[in-house]
Design goal:
- The protein is α/β, with parallel strands linked by helices.
- Helices cover 49% and strands 13% of the residues.
- The chain has 17 helices and nine strands.
- A seven-stranded mixed beta sheet has the order 2-1-3-4-5-6-7, sandwiched between helices. It has a two-stranded antiparallel sheet with strand order 8-9.
């Protein structure tokens, strides 16, 4: 992985005379391939902004004349590689190829292209229709001119973009993971029930409690993210999928779209908690919120230390992508750095058996706190 700040600069084929960005401003067209939720959200934003949307297969979209083509990852990495290779051969050298990679590496998807410098990742993240962020994923050979074309295009569509490295989980899926994983672990430990956990966060200004968020995303989708991250991080315990989540998915309780998850959904759109929890060690609302917030902060420091994204982009991504009232670095400013480190140390000692390395203070956090 190459950190987002460590980029070698190369000009685009038409950048020397400044034509590239003028074309973006004037083209007002985007190519769309695939039916995934994120790709279709980009298409909807383009139509709302008055842009032409050229959709279809690789050949028809390539012939449409768009300066940027947004495509879903198709099945496994080899299928996505084939799609990008087709687009690479059929489009002009200055057309940006943006792929929503799912769990795949953008670099792996681009390895069959002749011009991998114009291939980037693009991941639309939204917890509801009112708020969204787009992760622009910088692969090893992605070049700044391609990112600039994508960023300018997204800005013209009214979409906020953040930049991140081509790393497992990128920003939202990785740094936001403790928000959902630890919520399920609190259920398993009997610290709180479904209603209490979500109510604690909604009362603290979160747009959506963690268990209701899982229901919206889909328990099966959430489990897939857990499994992928656990594998990518060499079975790190903090990413280990909770047994409760696995058991609910196994019996078909996959969330709102299928009527049952942590909640049961009626035809009129109403819902109620649908899981009996034996409370053995009840935790107050403020303790629930503290646990999850500290875990998110800890993961944010790990990711930034690894060069995944800047603190500013992390904060924006979690506020807009997950509906958090503050990003993790904004939370540290609010709570106090030494308080955060002390509480992480205490919780790790108490909950290591259940949460593994989740609360083991990140090295970067230790370093900043001891300056």
């Amino acid at each position: 992985m190459v950190a987002v700040a460590d980029r070698e600069r190369h000009a685009s084929p038409d950048e020397a005379d400044g034509a590239g960005m003028d074309e973006v401003d004037g083209a007002r067209m985007v190519g769309i391939i695939g039916r995934g939720r994120g790709v279709q959200a980009i298409a909807a934003a383009a139509r709302a902004a008055g842009w032409e949307v050229c959709s279809g297969d690789g050949g028809s979209v390539a012939a449409g004349g768009a300066r940027i083509v947004v495509a879903d990852a198709e099945g496994d990495a080899s299928a996505t590689e084939h799609l990008l290779r087709t687009l690479d051969a059929a489009t002009a050298p200055d057309v940006v190829l943006a792929v929503d990679p799912g769990h795949q590496s953008v670099q792996e998807c681009a390895r069959g292209t002749r011009r991998p410098e114009r291939v980037i990742g693009l991941n639309h993240v939204s917890f509801d229709t009112a708020s969204a962020v787009v992760e622009l994923v910088v692969a090893e050979r992605s070049q700044p001119w391609a990112l600039e074309v994508a960023a300018r295009s997204l800005a013209a569509l009214g979409l906020r973009a953040v930049t991140c490295a081509d790393a497992p989980g990128r920003i939202v899926d990785r740094i936001g993971r403790p928000y959902t994983v630890e919520a399920v672990r609190l259920l398993e430990a009997g610290h709180a029930d479904v209603a209490a956990i979500d109510a604690a966060f909604e009362a603290s200004g979160y747009a959506c409690g963690p268990l209701r968020l899982i229901d919206r995303v889909g328990l099966d989708v959430d489990l897939d993210i857990d499994v992928a991250l656990c594998a990518a991080f060499h079975q790190a315990p903090r990413f280990r999928p909770p047994a409760l989540l696995r058991s609910l998915v196994a019996v078909g309780r996959t969330g709102r779209d299928h009527g049952r998850g942590f909640y049961r959904y009626a035809e009129d759109g109403s819902s109620r908690p649908d899981l009996e929890i034996a409370l053995s060690d009840p935790m107050p609302a403020e303790g629930i919120v503290e646990r999850l917030e500290l875990a998110v902060i800890n993961e944010a420091y790990r990711a930034v230390e690894e060069g995944v994204a800047s603190p500013q982009d992390v904060d924006v991504a979690l506020r807009l992508g997950l509906g958090h009232p503050r990003g993790p670095f904004e939370l540290v400013d609010h709570l106090g750095l030494r308080h955060v480190v002390a509480r992480l140390h205490d919780i790790h000692a108490d909950g290591q058996a259940r949460s593994g390395d989740q609360y083991a203070v990140a090295a970067a956090l230790w370093q900043v706190a001891t300056l």
